[in-house]
Amino acid sequence: MLDGDSKATSPETQDTLVAPASEAGSRPSAIDIREKPSRRWAVRGLMLAVPVVLLALGAYYWLSGGRYVSTDNAYVQQDKVAISAEVGGRIIDVRVRENMSVKQGDILFRVDPEPYALAVRQADADIAGAEVSVATLASEARSTGVGIASARDAIAYARIDLERQQALMERGFTTRARLDEAERRVEMAREQLRAAEASAAEARSRLATGTAVPGVSPAIAQARVRRDTAALNLDRTVIRAPVGGRVVQAERLQRGQAMVVGLPALTLVVDDRSWIEANFKETDLNHMRVGQPAEVRLDAYPDLKLTGRVESIGAGTGSEFSILPAQNATGNWVKVTQRVPVRIRLDKTADRRLIAGLSADVTIDTGKHR
Questions:
Q1: Residue 103 CA to chain centroid, in angstroms?
Q2: Model's pTM, two decimal places?
Q3: Alpha helices in the chain (DSSP H)
Q4: Parallel, antiparallel, or unpaired: how do β-strands 101-102 and 245-248 relate?
Q5: Which of 77, 189, 245, 359 could form a disulfide with 154 if both were Cys (CB 3.0 to 4.6 A apart)?
Q6: CA geometry: angle at 195 spanning 192 and 200, to 5°?
């Protein structure tokens, strides 16, 4: 018992043994004494720097406030060309399919050319007929000239005979009946001359208004115009791409389909010329000007940044050109901020394919400073 008690340590003894250790730990070392002032200066510097930085940022945003205007109501736009046939007929050949790339001059489809080839042959026949008519009328004109000359000769001979009969009548060597006959022949010759001159005038009129000398005749010229028109229509049976691009809405174009003149058959999207149409709020237009730089980002390509410039600002808001414009002259009018289309011209062609209708975010630097 005594041995056990001697080995045991009382609580008072433990407190006595532990106390020096705790006192030693609470006593600051020389290193701690050196570190505390520098730490305090760092905290003080940070407390001073944070307000200064915040103040500088606030001043920057205040000075540049309103400089940048942005919108996510923007889309990629590309030229679209509606393709239609200039002549009617049945489609006999389709060379394109949906989303196919074509170059300018490529054949898109063909219309049955047979009716137009027949029209060309008919026009050729009309030209030949007009040339024959010209030759006939020219011959008639020459004949009327001969008739006029003969009538004038007849008048001259009749006048000589009349003068001879008048001289004989004065001397009493002829009868009154012969004198009257001579006068009648003179009058008949004059009638023949008038008839020949009338025929010549008619021939000249027909040459002027109908067919004339080859190369000059209005009739031949008209026949040649009809032939040229028929040949043009024949050439139009082959429909070619007016520009390069991608074919869309081609599924409605089928062989055997009747093509109506002017009815759109398909559409070409000119994908090598793109621009951005951004619809900005009317409150963003105060400092916006043509030529200001713009930054464009596309939802389809988040890592792609495009640059451009303001090319034009719309002449009216979108509601002004809608099919059913807003009627604001009512008692239940609610003011709505309008949007104005702004066209952004891209500085260079993107290295990725741009598709018409892609969504975009546009930011314009108006250069405004307070």
A1: 17
A2: 0.63
A3: 2-7, 11-26, 30-63, 114-171, 176-209, 218-235
A4: antiparallel
A5: 189
A6: 125
What amino acid occupies position 238? V
Cα 370 to chain centroid distance, Å, stands at 42
**Tell me: the pLDDT tens digits for 145-191?**
666 777 787 888 888 877 887 887 787 777 788 878 888 888 888 88
HSE-CB for 171 with a 13 A CA cutoff: 6
CA–CA distances in Å: residue 237 to residues 100, 114, 115, 244? 21, 10, 10, 20
**3-class DSSP state for residue 313?**
strand
**Residue 148 to residues 136, 141, 161, 195, 198, Cα–Cα distance (Å):** 19, 11, 20, 8, 10
Quickly list DSSP for 220-287: HHHHHHHHHHHHHHHHTTEEE-SS-EEEES-TT--TTPEEPTT-EEEEEEEEEEEEEEEEEEGGG-TT
Average pLDDT, the chain: 81
CA Rg value for the chain: 52
CATH 2.40.30.170 assigned to domain 68-112+241-365? The reply is yes
- Please state, in angstroms and rounded to a whole number, the distance separating the CA atoms of residues 261 and 250: 17
pLDDT tens digits for range 35-90: 566 777 777 777 778 887 887 777 666 655 568 899 999 999 999 999 999 999 99
96 contacts 266 by C-beta, under 8 angstroms: yes
Q: Are 309 and 288 in contact (CB under 8 A)?
A: no
Those residues with Cβ within 8 angstroms of residue 7's Cβ, 6 or more apart along the chain or in another chain: none
Report the SS3 class of residue 178.
Answer: helix
Using alpha carbons, select from 105, 114, 86, 113 the residue that is nearest to residue 259.
86
Between CA 127 and CA 211 the distance in angstroms is 11
Distance CA 326, CA 331 (A): 13
CB atoms inside a 10 Å sphere around CB 227? 19
